[in-house]
Amino acid sequence: MADLSKHVVHGGSAVPPAEAWVPFEWEEPKLGKQVFGEVTIARKFGVGGSLTSGFWRTSPNAPGSASDGSSFKNIYSAPLGDETACVIDGTATLTVVSTGKKYTVKPGDIISSPKNLEVLWEIDAPFFKKYWCIWNGTDAVPNPPTELTINSIHDNPAEWIEYHFEEPKEGPLVAGELYFIRSAGTTGTMMSGVWRSGKGIAGTDVDEQGTMSTPYTGVLGDESILLLEGEVEVIETESGKKHLFRAGDAIGLSSGMHVTWVSKGPFSKKLWVITRDVLPSE
Question: PANTHER family under this entry (predicted)?
């Protein structure tokens, strides 16, 4: 049963006040305590499992950085859970330790890191910033993904899928279209992808300006979002409270909390991660 005390709308900016940034500290299993870069939190929890999101950055003044803002060779194995990240600023080379496979990432690239996969990060000076969402559920998934994968927010697959879903009160609805990046994580249910709405895109309620409105209760799970394009208003049904988000903001919606999602025209686009603390077959 959902914990109703966790029914909140989370939000965060990629450019928060200076005091909102704190050193990023974590325990790397083979190396011990690590401190590198700075982090700010947009989402501290979800309805189930361990779910957090926010922004991470390096600079010449950040903990662990070289004087020019680049890093030394830093191993990061996503020990806190599966991580979905999107590069906002800067470039880096990622090397999977077990295979030696290398990837160069740049703004707009989406990095899907399985929990406990050791990756060597080499960041180019002087700055690097990413949005991140980390998920860790209770039960392990059989045959979990084991590869680092890189996609891009600029990908435009031939087949976008209309998003059809069933709301408990409103019934069957259509809201925009999407494609999947990952369909499973290491624990529980984890999915991610890119979604868009606007003029000429399917939706039960889309006006001539491209503004789309839809009721939404997160029936598939908690949703963590990086808004890539446009403006969105999220209205809490119970309280009437309104939240306005712009491109670059992080948004967190709680599974089971009824809201109205309004994507303002002409277009909106988001990177989404949906998580739920049950295995996909349940």
Answer: CYTOPLASMIC PROTEIN (PTHR40943:SF1), CYTOPLASMIC PROTEIN-RELATED (PTHR40943)
Place of tokens 């979990």: 144
Residue type, 191: M
22-56 confidence digits (pLDDT tens)? 999 999 999 999 999 999 999 999 999 999 999 99
- Distance of alpha carbon 161 from alpha carbon 195, whole angstroms: 9
As given in the structure block, the two tokens for residue 128 are 């690097």
Q: Count the Cβ atoms, other than its own, within 10 Å of residue 274.
A: 20
Tokens standing for residue 134: 């980390």
16: region left, alpha or beta (phi > 0 left; psi from -120 to 50 alpha): beta
* pTM for the full predicted model: 0.96
Q: What is the pLDDT of residues 182-224, one digit of tens each?
A: 999 999 999 999 999 999 999 999 999 999 999 999 999 999 9
193-232 burial by CB neighbour count: b if 16+ within 10 A, else e? bbbbbbeebbbeebeeebbbbbbbbbeebbbbbbbbbbbb
Q: Number of H helices and number of E strands within the chain?
A: 0, 22
Q: Do the Cβ atoms of 39 and 55 come closer than 8 Å? A: yes
Residue 153, Ramachandran bin (φ over 0: left; ψ between -120 and 50: alpha; else beta): alpha
Q: Which residue in the block uniquely carries the two structure tokens 């662990």?
A: 64
Residue 234 tokens, joined:
């999220």
End-to-end alpha-carbon separation of the chain, Å? Answer: 14
Pairing relationship of beta strands 171-182 and 189-198 according to DSSP bridges: antiparallel
In the predicted structure, residue 3 carries a pLDDT above the cut 90:
no
